[in-house]
């Protein structure tokens, strides 16, 4: 009898282990891509190029943390790019109007602004009962439109931003950019929060089976609202860091990055159908995408190809997820029919 | 008890979304006329009708898709791809007529790719079409880069900006009217149309009643691809310009029009008449705001808000109705218990 109760994955081939752990396969892909590109162009592994890579991936990776929480609940947040744009300009104007303002206050105010914009999404989705796709598609345009109307052709320049603030986006600590440290610390916080704490598990529960979650007494509206507020606050932080990284901000800042963030998250193994995935995987997904686009640059592929590749990767990731879920369902059916 | 029901409840049951839209349309026309003396001129109306024709075209198949409970976010990218392809072919000295046929075929292929991924692999249409939104727009950039192709032959430009003889109706809008009638007949007067409602209402029940779900969905997404390509061709000739970023963001307006037209997010409900009325309403609002020198940024905010309000409003109406019904029920119960106590 005992052999009948083995896990559906009892064949421990290395391919099986790889397929099972999305993190392992992502690391393998990243390493393979790096080796390949370095072989073709050794400058790919130069310290400057590595630093650029880490800086490029950091803000996307930060946004991926918030998006993971949302997609785990089988929702989507398209409005993050507009929140990043508006809070980046907001942080800039704070420095322009109050040159003596401490950087910490600016970052906190940007997070607060993002949180409030996230709360608008949260209210419409959790209490207005509007699907998140519709809500955030609407606020994507509303926030960006408000940003354009506010900015009105102006821009914040690096000269108006204090050097100590810009240093967040350029300097390093122990060889790793400060921006990346911020992401790593938040990654640990999110990883533990989603794995060990009740609210974290409840995000997974809502995405796996909404009806079961309701019957289990989970306050779905409150958790939905929390998720979108977290996503907004993270986008606010990303907005302040966007200013620190680039120095110059106009009304078009961060336009279109929501697609990169969603693609990274899904490539990182957070299933678009909800309930599956980890933040570590999602951040590795962001890293893979970033390495991939650097590879394209190093191989002198025209930049016009980037978007098509990104779309193709998103489709591939969804298809792989669906295939894995299908195989899993097939195997558990075999197991149960034997019992 | 039945006669005692409040009159308002019956009224609320009868007032339908189309009547509401028609009323709003009337208010918008009267308001526009009062606000601006240029509003009710034939020139302005020719302009007004031409300005949203691409969105109107894409909204037709999109409403059918939403009625079955799916969504297609890639419509504007298919428009951009078709426009870029048309420009590239014309630049390579291919006859325009042949270029148009190729564009429509590519549109059908794009739609077939969406349909294939959704039907064959059972992937959620939302995720698939976000992916193809990036993919098809990416193809447009690969084809044309940041180049622009203009100088199309004058007879085709005339199709883009001309009006139907003896009227102020733009030629592309006449094309939209014909297609709207076709979609109206298909949706409301054929078995196929009824099947779409059945799928949106209850997919499993539709399957068991012998509806070929996969074939219908495939058909819808292919139609969406062809019509979006057609919208791309219209756009190219109307502006005499073919660029990779043509029509970026149009999916928002098309989706807003579909939901404002009374097609519900859950699927299974909605009419072509409602969608046409909401398209006109959005067109008039945009036109009135443009005449009043309101900037493009504000127009974006208005379109985004319309999208949200068009879903929020029916939700509020539904929950209010439900609350009224509950209050009525409680009153009935109270009456009954009072009667039994007095016995």
Topology:
The complex is a heterodimer of chains A (339) and B (343).
Chain A: H1 14-20, H2 22-40, H3 47-72, H4 80-97, H5 103-127, H6 132-151, H7 163-170, E1 172-173, E2 176-177, H8 178-196, H9 198-208, H10 210-215, H11 220-246, H12 257-267, H13 279-298, H14 306-338
Antiparallel strand pairs in A: 1-2
Helix pairs in contact in A: 1-2, 2-13, 3-8, 3-9, 3-11, 3-12, 3-13, 4-5, 4-6, 4-11, 5-6, 5-11, 7-11, 8-9, 9-11, 12-13, 12-14
Chain B: H1 7-14, H2 17-35, H3 42-51, H4 53-67, H5 75-91, H6 96-120, H7 125-144, E1 148-149, H8 154-161, H9 171-189, H10 191-201, H11 203-208, H12 213-239, E2 242-243, H13 250-260, H14 272-291, H15 296-342
Antiparallel strand pairs in B: 1-2
Helix pairs in contact in B: 2-14, 4-9, 4-10, 4-12, 4-13, 4-14, 5-6, 5-7, 5-12, 6-7, 6-12, 8-12, 9-10, 13-14, 13-15
Distance between the termini of chain A: 9 Å
Q: Give the uncertain stretches of chain A in residue-range form.
A: 1-10
What spatial form of chain B do the alpha-carbon principal axes imply? globular
The total of helices of chain A stands at 14
- How would you spell out the order of helices and strands of chain A? HHHHHHHEEHHHHHHH
Biggest interface found:
A-B, 42 and 46 residues
- What portion of residues of chain A belong to β-strands? under 5%
What is the approximate shape of chain A? globular
Helix content of chain A: over 70%
Q: Largest sheet of chain A at a glance? A: 2 strands, antiparallel
CATH level-3 fold name of chain A: ABC transporter involved in vitamin B12 uptake, BtuC
Spatial order of the strands forming the largest sheet of chain A: 1-2
Helical coverage of chain B, percent range:
over 70%
Estimate the mean pLDDT confidence of chain B.
89
Radius of gyration of chain A using CA atoms only: 21 Å
What fraction strand of chain B?
under 5%
């Amino acid at each position: 009898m005992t052999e009948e109760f083995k896990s559906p994955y009892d064949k421990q081939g290395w391919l099986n282990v790889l397929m099972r752990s999305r993190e392992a396969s992502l690391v393998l892909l990243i390493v393979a891509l790096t080796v390949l590109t370095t072989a073709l162009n050794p400058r790919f592994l130069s310290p400057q190029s590595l630093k650029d890579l880490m800086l490029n991936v950091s803000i996307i990776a930060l946004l991926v943390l918030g998006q993971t929480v949302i997609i785990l609940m089988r929702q989507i947040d398209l409005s993050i790019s507009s929140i990043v744009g508006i809070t980046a300009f907001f942080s800039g104007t704070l420095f322009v109007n109050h040159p003596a303002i401490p950087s910490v206050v600016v970052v906190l105010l940007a997070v607060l602004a993002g949180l409030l914009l996230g709360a608008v999404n949260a209210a419409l989705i959790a209490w207005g009962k509007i699907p998140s796709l519709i809500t955030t598609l609407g606020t994507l345009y509303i926030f960006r439109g408000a940003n354009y109307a506010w900015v009105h052709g102006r821009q914040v320049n690096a000269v108006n931003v204090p050097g100590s603030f810009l240093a967040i986006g350029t300097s390093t600590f122990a060889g790793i950019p400060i921006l990346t440290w911020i992401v790593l610390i938040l990654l640990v916080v999110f990883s533990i929060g989603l794995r060990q704490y009740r609210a974290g598990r409840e995000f997974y529960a809502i995405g796996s089976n909404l009806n079961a979650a309701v019957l289990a007494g989970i306050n779905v509206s409150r958790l939905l609202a929390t998720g979108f507020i977290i996503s907004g606050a993270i986008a606010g932080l990303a907005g302040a860091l966007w200013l620190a990284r680039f120095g110059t901000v106009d009304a078009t800042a961060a336009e279109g990055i929501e697609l990169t963030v969603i693609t990274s998250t899904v490539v990182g193994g957070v299933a678009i159908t909800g309930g599956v995935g980890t933040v570590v995987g999602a951040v590795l997904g962001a890293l893979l995408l970033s390495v991939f686009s650097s590879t394209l640059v190093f191989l002198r592929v025209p930049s016009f190809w980037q978007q098509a590749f990104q779309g193709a990767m998103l489709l591939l990731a969804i298809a792989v997820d669906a295939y894995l879920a299908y195989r899993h369902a097939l195997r558990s059916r075999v197991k149960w029919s034997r019992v | 008890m039945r006669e005692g029901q409040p009159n308002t409840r019956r009224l609320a049951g009868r007032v339908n979304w189309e009547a509401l839209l028609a009323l709003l349309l009337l208010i918008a026309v009267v308001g526009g006329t009062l606000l601006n003396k240029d509003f009710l001129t034939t020139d302005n109306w020719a302009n007004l009708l031409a300005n949203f024709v691409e969105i109107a075209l894409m909204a037709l198949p999109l409403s059918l898709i939403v009625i079955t409970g799916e969504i297609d976010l890639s419509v504007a990218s298919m428009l951009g791809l078709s426009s870029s392809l048309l420009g590239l072919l014309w630049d390579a000295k291919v006859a325009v007529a042949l270029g148009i046929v190729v564009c429509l075929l590519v549109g059908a292929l794009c739609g077939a790719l969406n349909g294939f991924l959704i039907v064959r692999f059972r992937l959620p249409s939302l995720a698939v079409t976000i992916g193809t939104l990036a993919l098809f727009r990416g193809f447009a950039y690969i084809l044309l880069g940041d180049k622009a192709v203009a100088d199309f032959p004058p007879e085709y430009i005339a199709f883009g900006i001309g009006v139907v003889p003896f009227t102020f109706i733009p030629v592309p809008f006449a094309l939209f009217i014909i297609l709207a009638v076709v979609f109206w007949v298909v949706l409301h007067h054929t078995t196929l149309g009824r099947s779409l409602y059945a799928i949106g209402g209850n997919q499993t029940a539709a399957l068991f009643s012998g509806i070929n779900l996969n074939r219908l969905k495939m058909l819808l997404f292919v139609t969406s691809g062809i019509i979006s390509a057609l919208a791309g061709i219209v756009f190219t000739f109307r502006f005499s310009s073919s660029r990779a970023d043509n029509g970026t963001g149009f999916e928002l307006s098309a989706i807003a029009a579909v939901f404002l037209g009374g097609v519900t997010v859950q699927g299974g409900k909605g009419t072509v008449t409602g969608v046409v009325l909401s398209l006109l309403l959005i067109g008039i609002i945009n036109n009135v705001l443009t005449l009043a020198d309101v900037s493009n940024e504000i127009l974006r905010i208005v379109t985004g808000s319309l999208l949200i309000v068009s879903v929020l409003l029916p939700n509020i109406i539904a929950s209010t109705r439900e609350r009224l019904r509950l209050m009525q029920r409680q009153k009935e119960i109270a009456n009954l218990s009072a009667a039994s106590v007095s016995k």
